[in-house]
Amino acid sequence: MMRARRYRHLITISVATTCYWCAVTYALTPTPHLTSAEWESRLCQGYGVINAAFGDNWGRAEWASDFSKLAVMVYYPTNGPGPPNSNTEIFVFHVGEAGAPVNVTAYPGPDRNPAWSPDGRQLAFTRDFSDKIQLIDQDGKNLVELTGNGSELAWSPTGAEIAFIDSTLNLSVVSTKGSRPQKLTLTSDHAAKPAWSPDGHQIAFIRAGGSNDRGDLLIVNADGTNQVIVNPASASARTLPLWSPDGSTIAFGGWDASRVRQIFLVRPDGLETRQLTHDPLSKVAVTWSPDGSEIAYITKNTSGLGELDVLDVKAGSVKHLCSVAY
């Protein structure tokens, strides 16, 4: 499966044959007026539509911040340059409305890394193997090239900037008006999976590298200052960090001592970390509920399917929602 999971959390999963853990992403800021029941219903409706339309040929799927619509990256066989199934298109559909998902990019080369603007009116994505960052309206009109060589896009809460991983594998930001990108990190390690804090003052991201294939969760100010590691030595960070709606905690997927991917919570100051899941199946967090009381995550079960579950952060109880093909 390739799903993607990143408002603050969108889902993002991706990759050619099926890189289930590569990406699941949900939009940056859940909408407060949604009840938990409505939120859960939209998640399962959305997955149901893309599973029915594309089977397991979809990769990254990203929700708008109000969970009313979903952008999904779909793989197609190709005889052109690049690996098999490297030609990708981005489809959009509105949850609860009639009609099939609509191809909004319709381009002969790969279109990847969809990310909704905070207001849900635009998508940012990357085009071709050079990963040129593009902006397009939700209906596929008004395409604009923003800058070149970027991946893993994340809009700031104001919509004024986009954080991305540049061609040197460092964290950069660029204005959505098209100014010169600003590099925020300078490292030989691989930065990945940026996520803005709700107030827009900080960006969390994963840094891969070092001994034992360790991944660290870091936070840096939006101007590139004060970069700090916040995850404990006992949890190697692996998947997209998800800020809680109030910005008080960050959920992330990390290896436990047995190298099983579990869900952890950490405060932005790094002073308190809690492991939320403990069973022997790998999982990845997808998004917070609008009220910040629950986290949705996907578990890869023993039959190879994905199970979408919701965990009550305070009580620790888990509720199964629906299955996800991948």
Keywords:
globular; 25 strands; 5-stranded antiparallel β-sheet; mainly beta; disordered N terminus; 4-stranded antiparallel β-sheet; Neuraminidase
List the helices and strands and how they pair.
Blueprint (H helix, E strand, L loop, with lengths): L35 H19 L3 E6 L5 E8 L10 E8 L7 E2 L7 E6 L5 E6 L4 E6 L6 E4 L2 E6 L5 E6 L4 E5 L6 E2 L6 E7 L5 E7 L6 E7 L6 E2 L6 E2 L4 E2 L6 E6 L5 E6 L6 E3 L7 E6 L5 E7 L5 E7 L5 E7 L2
Antiparallel strand pairs: 1-2, 2-3, 3-4, 5-6, 6-7, 7-8, 9-10, 10-11, 11-12, 13-14, 14-15, 15-16, 17-19, 18-19, 19-20, 20-21, 22-23, 23-24, 24-25
How would you sum up this structure, described in words?
- The protein is mainly beta.
- It has a domain at 36-232: 6 Propeller (Neuraminidase), CATH 2.120.10.30.
- 6% of the residues lie in helices and 41% in strands.
- The chain contains one helix and 25 strands.
- The chain has one helix spanning 36-54; strands at 58-63, 69-76, 87-94, 102-103, 111-116, 122-127, 132-137, 144-147, 150-155, 161-166, 171-175, 182-183, 190-196, 202-208, 215-221, 228-229, 236-237, 242-243, 250-255, 261-266, 273-275, 283-288, 294-300, 306-312, 318-324.
- Strands 17, 18, 19, 20 and 21 form a five-stranded antiparallel sheet that branches. Strands 1-2-3-4 form a four-stranded antiparallel sheet, covered by helices on one side.
- The longest helix is centred in the first third of the chain and has 19 residues, at 36-54.
- The protein is globular and about 45 Å long.
- The chain starts with 35 loop residues before the first helix and ends with a strand.
